[in-house]
């Protein structure tokens, strides 16, 4: 039975970064706002050395909380980057700081258990994390009932449960995303393998019969050279004809293999736009596009998206396709004055469009940005 990965391991599988980025610190630090409760309790109820001690424990706990994410950033998110025993010791240290806070912050110190539950859900195996959260939840509920002067309002137990549940939900969502990505990669590899098999079958079908006949005729010509030179010459001529025909068939097969695919270009365009952090609004089907228009439209997608990624500075790119027209639009800086429509790629695209009897329109999109459109026919 496979072990459920921790959130650290899931994040490591999801991306190539060694640890959380700069904004990860901000996202983690925002939640320190809730430590204001024990901080205020200590500041208003304690005096002298006890106040200093209590505030110091709150500050140390906040440093420990942020230090966990700094630890992740330094050592990385790999499966073995942070051994499990070190994670447990770290959580034990945070729990010890919580206990040290109790004499000065009282019931408000239970707020720290929410942070410990969240980090447990991030760092530990799900079964261990759930067990630890259950212990924290039970401890909070029992202490509110047993410690004199503490009120049993259920808020701390609910906060621990809610915080752990939120992190668990994020954990499961990332795990499903990883599984979906792995499935897509497997399907892509299978598609590549199937295409290789198809091409190998095509070459076998093209060359198998031709080479067999060429071999037989060459052997026959060799035997007839002395006995019947005229017959041998005819056989050699047939061998030459068969070889030329086989070569033409191979060239045709290779040309078809290298032909652009509109569906494939849309997939590549989406990947390129995502890599450039440009929101992609692309069609999900090309069924309405006639077969004779698809290669030209594929060239439009390639050239248009290349220009969007390289030159536009856009935040969004939209591709619209009908049976006889394709448009590539972005919300970037628009065409460059005096040369925005004369790049080498667009020149080549115009030549292809002319050969297909299509027209090319290049200019500013409605409102702002750049528009490239190709229309086949009137």
Give the class from helix and strand content and strand pairing.
alpha+beta
Assembly form of the protein? single chain
As laid out across the biggest beta sheet, the strand order is 1-2-3-5-4
Considering DSSP H and I runs of 4 or more, what fraction of the residues is helical? 55-70%
What radius of gyration results from the CA coordinates?
34 Å
**How many separate domains make up the residues?**
3
Shape: elongated
SSE arrangement, N to C: HHHHHHHHHHEHEEHEE
Q: Which ranges are low-confidence, i.e. pLDDT below 50, for 5 or more consecutive residues? A: 15-20
What is the residue-averaged pLDDT? 80
Number of helices: 12
Protein name: Sensor histidine kinase
GO molecular function: phosphorelay sensor kinase activity; protein dimerization activity
Domain Signal transduction histidine kinase subgroup 3 dimerisation and phosphoacceptor: 195-259
Transmembrane segments: 52-72, 84-102, 114-136, 156-174
What does this structure look like?
- This is Sensor histidine kinase.
- One of its GO terms (molecular function) is phosphorelay sensor kinase activity.
- InterPro entries: HATPase_C_sf, Sensor_HK_TwoCompSys, Sig_transdc_His_kin_sub3_dim/P.
- One of its GO terms (cellular component) is membrane.
- This protein is an alpha+beta fold and 378 residues long.
- The protein has three domains: 177 residues, no CATH class; 63 residues, Single alpha-helices involved in coiled-coils or other helix-helix interfaces; 115 residues, 2-Layer Sandwich (Heat Shock Protein 90).
- The chain is built from twelve helices and five strands.
- Strands 1-2-3-5-4 form a five-stranded mixed sheet, with helices on one face.
- Strand 4 and strand 5 form a beta hairpin.
- Helix 10 runs parallel beside helix 11.
- The longest helix has 73 residues.
- The radius of gyration is 34 Å and the shape is elongated.
- The two termini are 63 Å apart.
- The relative contact order is 0.06.
- About 2% of the residues have low confidence.
